[in-house]
Design goal:
This protein is of the alpha/beta class and 344 residues long. It has a single domain (40-343), classed as TIM Barrel. Helix content is 33%, strand content 12%. It has helices at residues 20-28, 59-62, 95-107, 124-137, 154-166, 182-188, 204-209, 228-237, 253-256, 268-279, 321-324, 326-343; strands spanning 47-52, 112-117, 141-146, 171-174, 196-200, 214-216, 241-242, 245-246, 250-251, 261-262, 284-287. The strands form 2 sheets. A 9-stranded parallel sheet has the order 7-6-5-4-3-2-1-11-8. Strands 9-10 form a two-stranded antiparallel sheet. Strand 6, helix 8 and strand 7 (241-242) form a beta-alpha-beta unit. Helix 1 packs across helix 4, helix 5 (154-166) packs across helix 6 (182-188) and helix 10 packs parallel to helix 12 (326-343).
Length: 344
C-alpha cells in the first residue's frame, strides 16, 4: 500500500542539505505531555509514531494541484480521495498548514512524525527541514519513511542512512522492504550506533535475516491486528523491535480504482487494532496515517460535504463538527492507555 502515482515529491527543486542543528533539535526535545523521550532523544517504551505525507500542492503555492487531482479529478471540489479534508485541498508548502498539522499531531499524543522521503535527489530534504523546525516547536521527533524511489537498492539505502544519520535522523522505516532479498540487506545493514532501521514486512524472520532492528506492517487493508501478538512475540524472541501499524480503515477507490475497502465501522476498527497492539506489547505503535488521503487511512480532520465523499460522522457516536477531529482525539485517548500499559 501507499504507492500512489509514484509517490513523487512536490516540485523539482534541487536537494538542499538539512541543517544538522535543525534536525538535532527535533531528536533532543522531550515530548512534554507524554514524557516518553529520553534526554538523548531515544523514546521510552510506549512510543507512538505516525506516517506523514508532504506531497500536496495548490496552484497558489506550487503551480498546480499536486496529488489532489491525480486520476483526472478536478480540485478543489473534485479530489482524488474518498474523504474531504476539513482544510480543503491544501499545499504542504503552506507554513500555516504545517504549523497547524504539527500542533494537531502533538496534541494527539504522538511522539514521532515519520516523514515520507524519496531519496537524496528528490528535493525532499528541503521539505524535511521545514517539517523538522515545526516538529521541534511541538516537541515531536522526526523519523524517515524511506520510499521505493527509482533505483533504490540495499547499497543505495546504506548511503541514504549515512546521509540521514549525519543530519540527526535516528529512526528510518524502509517501505516495501521485501522488494529486496534479505540476503542483500544483510550485506549492508550493520549495527549503526544511534540509528534504528525498520523493515516494512509482516515477517519478523525476514527482518532478522536482513539485519534490520525491527519491523512495521503499514498496510491498513491487509492487517486487522489479530496477528500482532503472534508476530510481536516472534520478534521479541529474535531480539527485534515490534512496531505494528494501526489504522482507522482503507478506501482508495476514487484515487486508485482499488475496490477493496476496510470500513471504519464508526471507529471500532481503529479501537480493535489499538487494543491488539497494546496486548502484543508492541515496542512502538505506528499509525497509518495522519494524511494519506488517497488511501483513506488518514486521521487528519475531515468534513462532511456529501456527494461521493465519506465522512467521520458516527465515529464514537459523534456527528457534525464534533466528528471532524474524532480520530485525533481517539488517538490521544489510546496513546495514554498504551503508555500506561507499557509502564506496568
Amino acid at each position: 500500500m501507499g504507492a500512489v502515482d509514484s509517490r513523487a515529491g512536490l516540485g523539482t527543486r534541487p536537494t538542499a542539505a538539512l541543517t544538522a542543528v535543525t534536525i538535532a533539535a527535533v531528536v533532543l526535545v522531550a515530548h512534554g505531555s507524554a514524557g516518553r523521550i529520553e534526554s538523548d532523544g531515544t523514546p521510552h517504551a510506549g512510543e507512538v509514531a505516525i506516517f506523514y505525507y508532504a506531497w500536496y500542492g495548490t496552484p497558489a503555492l506550487d503551480g498546480g494541484y499536486v496529488h489532489w487531482g491525480q486520476g483526472g479529478y478536478r480540485p478543489p471540489t473534485d479530489i482524488a480521495s474518498d474523504f474531504y479534508p476539513l482544510r480543503g485541498p491544501y499545499s504542504s508548502s503552506d507554513m500555516r498548514v504545517l504549523r497547524a498539522q504539527m500542533r494537531e499531531i502533538s496534541s494527539a499524543g504522538i511522539d514521532t512524525v515519520i516523514v515520507s522521503w524519496w531519496g537524496r535527489e528528490s528535493g525532499d530534504d528541503d521539505r524535511l527541514e521545514r517539517i523538522a523546525d515545526e516538529a521541534a516547536r511541538n516537541a515531536l521527533r522526526v523519523a524517515i519513511h524511506l520510499e521505493p524511489y527509482p533505483g533504490r537498492s540495499a547499497a543505495s539505502v546504506a548511503t541514504d542512512l549515512l546521509h540521514l544519520r549525519a543530519h540527526g535522523i535516528t529512526d528510518v522505516y524502509v517501505y516495501d522492504a521485501t522488494r529486496t532479498p534479505a540476503a542483500e540487506w544483510a550485506t549492508v545493514l550493520h549495527p549503526t550506533p544511534g540509528i534504528r532501521v525498520f523493515a516494512n514486512t509482516g515477517l519478523p524472520g525476514f527482518a532478522k535475516a536482513g539485519g534490520f532492528d525491527g519491523f512495521y506492517t503499514y498496510d491498513a487493508y491487509l492487517y486487522d491486528g489479530t496477528s500482532f501478538p503472534r508476530v510481536c512475540a516472534s520478534a521479541h524472541k529474535l531480539g527485534l523491535l515490534c512496531a505494528p501499524s494501526v489504522g482507522p480503515g482503507y478506501d482508495a477507490e476514487r484515487a486508485t480504482g482499488d475496490v477493496r475497502v476496510r470500513e471504519r465501522r464508526a471507529g471500532t476498527r481503529y479501537d480493535a487494532m489499538w487494543r491488539r497492539a497494546i496486548a502484543a506489547r508492541a515496542d512502538v505503535v505506528t499509525v497509518t496515517s495522519y494524511n494519506e488521503w488517497h488511501e483513506g487511512t488518514q486521521i487528519e480532520p475531515a468534513r462532511a460535504v456529501g456527494g461521493p465523499y465519506a465522512s467521520y460522522d458516527g465515529a464514537w457516536g459523534l456527528r457534525g463538527k464534533r466528528a471532524q477531529s474524532a480520530y485525533l482525539h481517539r488517538t490521544a485517548w489510546w496513546a495514554t492507555r498504551y503508555s500506561s500499559a507499557m509502564a506496568r
